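Record pair follows.
FIRST:
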Amino acid sequence: MGRWYICKSCSEKFEHPQFDVICRSCDTIFQIENADLREISKYRLNEDRKKEVRQNVASLERITKLLTDLNFEIQTPGWAIGEKSGMRHQFSLLARKEIAGRQNLIALDMVVAENEVQASPLILYIYKTSEVTVDLPVFVAIPKFSATAHKIAQGHNILLIEGSTEETDNIARMKLEIENRLSGRPPTQPEGTGTKTDTAQKAQQSGTQAARWSKEEEEEEKKAQIQLFSTTSSIHPEPKKTSGFMKYLKKNIKKDKEENEQ
């Protein structure tokens, strides 16, 4: 009964074979009884939590190293108190550094999405930075921003970074932006803006678009005024004009009255 092993050299039968274990690092051979046995579990990704996992796995290591090399004090995550509301706002990273007797602050938020980062987290970030005095607002979107988010970011002076924070181009761009803003130099021209001619053409297009928007706003205002007038008119209707029959009736009543008086 049971299981037996047979030696292929001498045909000896035995119940328990001897196992030799070889270390892959130093090639040491030892018995399995002398080994430290540990169970290695196997894991499978929960597809329902995939977005959350990607958010937590995304690293700010290179950005943290860049800011540390520039002598910033880092907090990940960082907390700041809103100057107006008194609320406690959380950022993915806060970096502080005193320059010329003044505390300079970099506030960074990072959002990871499946396809593209929508406008809502960016709107929340804009609100938080309006509550806190920030010298360099940075927003990182992985893998990229949506078109709507890009439009919203315009005019808010935010350094937008798309893609991995491990990319050398993103780190170099952020370093240049930090040096420019904290030294009082104007922000660098966004990537892909092109030549001066292209810039002028875009400015002209923006002017045309602004004029078109102004016209649309004027038309909307007229519509609103018409709607307001209609509403007011329904509450306080204008007196109805006297019809021909009513004029004839009033005239005859007046005539009969005069004849009676005579």
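SECOND:
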Amino acid sequence: MNKKILLSLSVIAAVATIAVGGTIAYFSDTETSTGNTFTAGTIDISVDGENPWTSTEKYQLNDMKPSQIEYTNFTIENTGTNPANVWKKVTNVKTEENGINESECEAYGGSWNGASCTGGTAKNDLDQVIQYDLSVIVKDSGGTERWSQTLYNMDKTIADIVAMPGYGTFLGMVPAGWTMDVTESYHMDASADNNYQSDKMTFDISLTAEQLKGTLVLEDKEDSEIWRVKGETTSQVIITYGVKDATLKITDITGQTVVAGDHSLITYPESYSNPSGSSYPNTDGVVLANVVVDGSGNITGYNQVVTNPGTFENMKIWLVPNTDLFSGSAKLNAWNQPNYMFETGLTDYYKSSGL
């Protein structure tokens, strides 16, 4: 055999031996992380210490009369591991006769024979003549009040709250381990005449807790003493943002402000500190965004200022005209509360723990 051919075959065999045998090595190092775990958080609430909520005695309101007020109160505790938005909804309202007396029979236009009523037209709409108040107080794990709001102040009837869409009335955010005291009052209208004597109403109540989804609602308040929301005519601003991310990302700010002129979206911690002698918060705030507002108060755009504020929890979010702020800061130089848009619940943002 040709010597050149033999030499070539020898080279090929040597290369094959190196490839198969792995006799050539490179510097290397291997590190292994073991026992990694992803764990989902929980959303869970209890009511007056019950989970599930089964008690009904607080809603057995008997012997109601025009111009008189009945109260109920219950406490929601966030027993889960995450802050939760909470709603209250009233459903399955049924109004009915609960016996007819002479006065009610005559109000119906009927005839009373001493024991029963004949003729006339019954009126069974008790839900239309009971007005409704609702207020909430959020307390931390030590029982200290941190946030409160009056949601309704005799500007809703039972029929109105039944008609609320979705989960019903938004009560606010309850941080994990905190509680929300819910106080309601029921006012039987002074105009409720003998048509309503002995009438009866039954209904169901559901409370829904949901994880924060990155939607903030700001509204104007009508009165600085009771912080009352202005019913359906209130100005409203809706902000969408990422609740947990590497950086804070505001994706939209829409709606209408109380007054025209450019505004700033600012945050205050729920336990902000006031300087001595000040009647309004002007420390510890952060400007999150500059908001462009036209002459009619409509929001036409925004410019996010802060993208990496770190984690902030239980924050108050306000929209304030720039004229009431010191230049370039969240510090208020005046207090014109009717011109501000306020949070309808405390707000959290969490910087991702992996970054």
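COMMENT: The chain has two domains: 47-211, 213-355.
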